[in-house]
Fold these 2 entries.
Entry 1:
Amino acid sequence: MRCATGFASAVALSWLVAIVALVTGAPSAGAAGLSEVIGQVQPKIVKIYGAGGFQGLEAYQSGMLISGEGHVLTVWSYVLDTDEITVTLDDGRRFKAQLLGADPRLELAVLKVDATGLNHFELAAATKAEPGTRVLAFSNLFGVATGDEPASVQHGLVAIKSQLEARRGVFDTTYKGPVYVLDAMTNNPGAPGGALVDYEGRLLAMLGKELRNSLSNTWLNYAIPIEEMATTVDEIRTGKFVRKPNDEPNKKPDKALNLALLGIVLVPDVLERTPPFVDAVRPDSPAALAGVQPDDLVLFVNDRLVQSCKALAGELEFIDRIDAVKVTVIRGQDLVDVTLAAPAEEK
Amino acid sequence: MRFSLSLAVLSVLASSVTSPGAANDDVLKAEAERVAVVARAREAAVAIFAAGGQGGGSGVVITPDGYALSNFHVTKGAGDAMKCGMADGRMYDAVIVGIDPVGDVALLKLLGRDDFPHAVLGDSDQVQAGDWAFAVGNPFLLATDFTPSVSYGIISGVHRYQYPAGTLLEYTDCIQTDASINPGNSGGPLFDSQGRLIGINGRGSFEKRGRVNVGVGYAISINQIKNFLGHLKAGRVVDHATLGARVASQADGRVTVADILDDSDAFRRGLRPGDEIVRFGGRVIRTVNAFKNVLGIFPRDWRVMLTYRREGQTYDVPVRLEGVHSPEELISKVQGRAPAEPVPDEPMPEKREPGQRRPRDGGPRPTPALARREPMPAEVKAVYETRRGYANYYFNKLERSRVWNHCIARGDFHEATGEWLLRGELAGGGDAEFRLSDVAAGCTLPGGHMRVPITEDLTSASDPPGSGGMLAALELWRRLVVLGPEKFGDMYYLGTAPLAGPHAAADVPALFRVLGHDRAPAAASHGELCDVLAGTFAGVECRFMFDPKSGNLVAMEMYRSDNDDPCELYFADYAELEGRVFPRRIEVRYGDAVYLAVKLVEVKLDKMGDK
């Protein structure tokens, strides 16, 4: 009962605050308040640097601290596809970050830096927005800020809360859930992973990847509500979300699986981290029978994240060849799960 | 906390429920205030049209007599004579005054009125992220009836750094806003919520989405422009500054000197590779961007306070900034060939190492000739004079006359063409005597007597030893006072600069301050900038600095070489002499040391008053 009341008052509060914002949001009255809110939010925003830097792929994105111990929520992207992820805090301190886990279905990732006592958002305290809610977007768009320079702040309104799925085939994304569509141009290069907050500084959502509508050639400005991500983020933080690579050599079976047995030929492994794209599938192999196709990008093996050809081969060493294996691939813009039967005994 | 917040919220709700008109009134009141502020501010906005009808942009008037700011990249396309439309629907002729190609600023003057609506200059160092702001201008050149467009937004960030194209169009310490800035807004004003001018809109980040606003526009801060305004009024092609050192950021967040030119002033002041830059121009430096921001807001030759740390010890030194370009290099970039990309509103993809010295080339390619100019209107022709190195030499002569006429109003010594005899007491004890004339300058000091002939080449006239050339400098001071700027030798109005003698003696007022002791140096020092006349005689370059209030000559610097410190003379304690004012205290400095300070007790200027 107490809990229910709390919830009701929280909802009422957000509605009331919207009214206050309408009154105080006028330029003369609202300016001081915004600066204060911005000052509270900035320490929670981080700059992330990683892979990229060529062909219009920026080597940076944004993120937000979600624990005092250095957990960072950001978008899952090619930027994180490296062993050298750097996170720069608002005060200019630089850390090498560890990728704790990622869920490509939600296009989120959780990083960890080795620090304590950090100012951060509590995901449990995140709130919701309605159409018309005034919002501020924090991100390091265009990589404008470096070191201890604060992230960029933009203002706008939530235009609508809508399903991205409805636009399937139009936007190149694996995320199919609800998003806040914004009236401000927030989703610029480098902005993904930034925070969307209300005028009270309360966390609402995370700015998503740049999405271009392939029919109208327009860009979508949107953010993914925290409520869609909170459970997964908790699971990653607590280690229940088992999608990290296996790293206990003593668990390897005597006769492990390998790519040849499954009938999968990957693209030539020429980079330090070659993305595991399927180059060819041997006829009548377990992969062929399960429907694996050339150009599929392998993301998970038995729900464990594999970020490279080497990682995929390594992961198979933990699977006994008498067992079936679940493989998750990205095909086009869809995530597809397939189960490959145990290969027939070698003659 | 939440409970009390709820209460506050409830009370607001209650009032809006019981009297729905109350909240509504507040909204309407705020809206009416905003409308009034915008209505006032937009009066000063200018729509600039190229004389040939090709292209244009925006601007803003900042004085009643029509001085207006815009972007260099707007005026260079528009030509030296422009047509400017204002919100009153009238079209005015305008002429270029001065340009700052590195900072992308141009000063022009609208003609025909002495009561132009003009913007009030704000203090951009007080601007912070989240402040409401609005841009006024001529986006997409919509204002065919001169009615400016207004776009509202917030400040997204301050002290931003945006890379130059080659060496031009560098946006340092700029203001980032999410108010829509589109092509055509360039050169137009960014106002704060009170309608004070805080910046000149000039570029945005666009990248792959085409050249329309994506919520990321940049304005040149008005405080930076205040530092350059005197130089711009001089009708000059103005350069920016470098330290002569390359800096790099370290993993621990320190910014250190990677290398340094050994003929730079910073080197002479003690800066060496490996030293940590702690503060510069009054700001704590923790990124290379922050360092470049400080460099960008000051004109070359200004002296700025630098704090560096070596082995745990910190040193405060005033550093004289050097030019990004050699004078000829900049002029040939701007006047020798077309200066830049046609419309440089995009962030430049060029990447350099942090702090890398600006490349000496990489200059933009020449662009095709612009549309054929119409003949210059007579009204414009009357205030326009071409001369290499100047955007409009007419205004240099205007300012030079203004400064000199102010000075001689109380201190006209043009009759004192004979020998000058100055006797006084040295600050450290002992007597000093100086004899200055066209043929020689001599002095008698406790150490002995010395005499320097005034020849056609004074570049090696460094006597007395350790003074940097005090005797030659004193005679050149006499030369200016007697002959005036037109006969001194190739003398022009340089602009304004802070008087930066590092002494803060009690009898030397706040005039003698080094930039950087204040949190906001540009704004705080603005009122104390001196007018500077620069001239060359007998191979040495001299700078003469005048107090803008009294008109008195307060300092001079004599440069015998680019690679050596100047000899600095400071003049103070002006007192009456035969109905005119003459300084009674002279201090001579060279490098980091005071060479002497003398209090004059006897002044005899030969031929003074003779007919």
Entry 2:
Amino acid sequence: MCMKHDFNHLQAAHCENGVTTNLLRTIGIKHMTEPMTFGIGSGLFYVLLPFLKINNGPAIAFRTMPGLIFKRTCNALDIPVFRKKFSSKESGKKFLDDCLDRGQPVGCQVGVYYLTYFPKEYRFHFNAHNMIVFGRENGRYLISDPVMEEVTSLSEYELERVRFAKGPFAPRGQIYYPKEAIQVTDDMMRKAIATGIKRNVFHMIHIPGTVVGVKAIADTGKKIKKWRDKLGQQKAGLYLAQLVRMQEEIGTGGGGFRYIYAAFLQQAHAYHPKDELLDISKTFTHAGDIWRNAAVQAAGIYKGRIGSQADFDIMGDYLLEISEIEKNAFRALSKIKWKP
Amino acid sequence: MKKEEIPQDNGALNKLTKELVYAVDSSGNYTTALSSGWEVKAKALDVAWEDIEKRIEAARQKVLNNEASPILYFIELRLMDIGIVSAYTGFWKWRIKRHLKPGIFRKLSADKLQKYAEAFNVTVQELKTMNVHEA
């Protein structure tokens, strides 16, 4: 069976941003961009979960919980959302097929361990990847994976396997899409942008404790300084490699997320012509640059090129510096008066 | 990051696609461009895989020394932990821990072995021998 579809694939830096942006474009919100989605969805985040280990390393995330960017962006624009998980593979497949038959492209949460087109090096048990399934052709599902330049396809079995991957954040076949097209006015965009920024300010500087936000970045910096003595050179190197992977890999971002946020503030300026936004955008670019410098320093350590206590101190200080810069940036954002 | 500073090293993902990156152009405006990868993160991924290889080998030795059942080897080989094995097999975690003992593993029913084999995507024979033939 061959179906007609007029789906436009658009590559993104981060999977959930990309899926959200592309799905919103399918319902006619053509001016939606990845940075806009990320900013309205308050995507910038930092969390270091104590006591928890992922792949035998520290549990760090640079993004919000999976699913939230889509949910918040749609909520902020008053777009009704459909979301469903499935208890059986059969019902999950049937539902997907019904959607596709009536021409509805859908967002799918999937695991990457069995994602056949990914290179083996990237296939961990990470279950919060997102893609759009937009059609069927010759028994294969047509896939728009936002991290890829081109569209691709999966067999029925391959798609079922990634949709029903198990483990932490098991997707359980989860499907989501915006239920109906609505007219998004500039006024709605303005309101959504302000809401997204305010929520991000709260997450990064106002949550008490040192587990999330800029205080957690500083806390990680302090911990890194102790890693060499506490864990030994080799394990400390592994931990730093994990930090960099979480920061820079596809699907998680980090340094890259700072740049997306900076881009968002520039785009927000078109809706709220306040020059502070452009200045703060530059600050986030600066923060992203230091995240990258920190990654270079970490790489020196996990490559074994450097590794003295002084080198770990420099690494830790980078994070303390970032924490300070981002704290000031979010404070400046919190002072903006959104009402004209 | 300026657009011309976007790294163009060779990363593992480059076999599949180039990555989209945000950077500023000469007039300070954000734009996007493609990157083939960054050596710093390629190395981070290498380090993670070197560690995985070590863990797999250590697990294999433990099984050969009769200190653990082959389940340990496959947990490492498939990058899993007991929680993930539990999710795929439906066994309680404490039971899986028990099955990690060689003596108890040898007495497992065909039914249970089959569940483990499926979770690890191997045959029961491969599960028992750690001899995996993969394309």
